[in-house]
Amino acid sequence: MRITSTNIGERKKVMYRGKPVFTGIFKSPQKQPIFLGKEDVEKDAVIDRKYHGGIDKACYCYSKEAYAFWQPLFPELHFEYGMFGENLTMEGLKEEAIHLGDVWTIGEAKVQVTQPRQPCFKLGIRFNNQGVLNQFIKAPYPGVYLKVLKEGLVKVGDKVSIEETSEKNPGLLDVYQLLYSLEPKRELIRDILSYGDLPESLRETFAQKLKKLV
């Protein structure tokens, strides 16, 4: 894997259902390296910290190759890296090969995979079409949230080195698909809940799913 683009967004006001909404999802490529901090990317706008930023969502990565899937679906839009609100556009990112807890080195930073992205209405704002949310949920390209274990600068061209990985940990794509499954399997939920480093928000979500199956 390799970094294709580093992206930053400013605080922006848009109208949503007749009301002003602030968002940082409108990100654009940067010429300079970006700094991955413990709770966010330096100089990147994080508006609602209940759902964005923080220890378990300090940095968001998205696949360069996934852009080829989305562009034909929205030919009226001008696509540039950062379109999905990602801080790092990454060549060779394959969600099906990633596990929660994987540890990577990117540039000066050391990071750990925490969870897939769950899209919200602000992605719909970015695409000017709330229908993209359902399409995003069904597509196998959720992207990756990272915890920053060691802060540092990341630049275009940096190689992503896999330092630790374990197939015993929940698969990123398995977790994502189970989040939206209409017929979730009890044993799969229990496997995910047994993972000790599962972010608390995901733990609560899957615990509720399991409770409904009992």
Report on the structure:
By secondary structure, the protein is an alpha+beta fold. 22% of the residues lie in helices and 28% in strands. It is built from six helices and twelve strands. It has helices at 67-70, 121-127, 132-138, 172-179, 186-193, 200-213, and strands at residues 2-9, 12-16, 19-23, 27-29, 34-36, 59-63, 88-91, 103-106, 109-116, 144-150, 152-154, 160-164. The strands form three sheets. Strands 4-1-7-6-10-9-8-12 form an eight-stranded mixed β-sheet. It has a two-stranded antiparallel ribbon with strand order 2-3. Helix 5 packs antiparallel against helix 6 (200-213). The protein starts with a strand and ends with a helix.
